[in-house]
Amino acid sequence: MFEKYTRKENLPNSLTVLRILMIPVFLLILTVSKSTLAHVFAGIIFAIASLTDYLDGYLARKWQVVTNFGKFADPLADKILVMSAFIMLVELGFVPGWVASVIICRELAVTGLRLLLVETGGEVLAAAMPGKIKTFTQMFAIVFLLFHWNLIGQIFLYIALFFTLYSGYDYFKGAGFLFKDTFR
What we know:
Layout: H1 7-32, H2 36-63, H3 68-91, H4 97-119, H5 129-146, H6 150-174
Helix pairs in contact: 1-2, 1-3, 2-3, 2-5, 3-4, 3-5, 4-6, 5-6
């Protein structure tokens, strides 16, 4: 009935929950103060949350303790963290609204595609290298922009935008069979 988890199994899920709890702290810091110090502190919080993303996935795979909660909550936490950060960066004037919109729309579209694939019994598309590069560059862009390292932050932002579009195309190309009869 209920699965009994060992501490080893709980650690990746605990890291995911920690990341979810860090999101409101991150948002609060950026909302309460517009100072450079607040931006840097929020950047540190974001960096730690991003590291938990890497660590929980690494541990779950290494220990072979993938759970239904982890499969659901981990990608959701990642998307909420990144989308919230981009929205705040637009508010702060660090990122153009159109760039954040493209990134957020791609995230929602790929999430919808994955749900459609699950519903139709298709293969679940695993994250390919372009998607991993997208995630890496998005997270670094956010941290660098919050640290006010604007040039490197902007470079990573536009690299992230490229890989956001490319990986989105790649996912939809891989699931093209779902749409082959749509426009006939």
